[in-house]
Amino acid sequence: MKQLLVDAESEGIFLEPNMAKIEDAALLNQMGRMRLDMKPSSAAAGKGPMRTGALKSLKEDHNELNRNNAQLQQRFDAMQKQMTDVLRDKSALGAENEALRASLGDAGAAQSKSSVASGQAGERSAKQVAALEARLSAAEGETSMRVNESRQFLQMKKIMGQKTEQCRILRERLSKYESDDIDEDAS
Predict the structure, then answer these.
(1) Which of 34, 106, 126, 133 is the most exposed place for a label (fewest CB within 10 A)?
(2) Are 17 and 5 in contact (CB under 8 A)?
């Protein structure tokens, strides 16, 4: 109670305590549960224990967000590495497909020159090439969809957005308190 009166007086507020009300136990319990986390007025900015606590809390929040941001960045880097591996596999499959096309095309051309039956073999090889192309395009689509729509990737993307927004808000709040400190130092 004494601390409350001292803080109020230092803020320029004069309180007149009603002793009958102060001795009421129910009111004492209510006062004990009250939170005094009001923003300081611009005239009283920088004075009192609430300001120091707010700055410490902001700095702790900022540090926690920076740690979370670093962890998310590591996860993002790991996902990028996985994506690079998938793209490398995709390139290898494309090269393998081209090699198969070339070998089937050469085999089909040689067989078509030799006999009429080779025409049927050419059709078979064309069908095989078409089937391989269909499998390759399906695998490519599945790979890109699997990475872009994976639960982990989407969660990480959402969390990164949230943490970025939280950092932005904390920076604004911190810059407000730091600018108040600079103004007081200049006075």
Answers:
(1) 34
(2) yes
> Are 54 and 110 in the same domain?
yes
Say what the alpha-carbon torsion angle 61, 65, 67, 72 is, to the nearest 10 degrees: 160
Q: Please indicate, yes or no, whether residues 52 and 72 belong to a single structural domain of this protein.
A: yes
Tens of each residue's pLDDT in the chain, 187 residues: 677 777 877 877 777 776 666 666 666 676 666 645 444 444 444 444 455 566 677 888 889 999 999 999 999 998 889 888 888 888 888 888 888 888 877 766 555 555 545 556 667 778 888 888 888 888 888 877 777 788 888 888 899 999 999 999 999 999 988 877 666 666 6
Residue 68's identity, in one-letter code, is N
Spatial contact of 31 and 147, defined as CB atoms under 8 Å apart: no
Domain that holds residue 2: 1-36
C-alpha distances in angstroms, 151 versus 71, 80, 144, 165, 177? Answer: 17, 15, 14, 21, 39
Q: How many residues does the chain have?
A: 187
Residues 130 and 68 in one domain: yes
Same-domain check for residues 12 and 84: no
| Nearest-angstrom CA–CA distance, 159 and 147 | 17
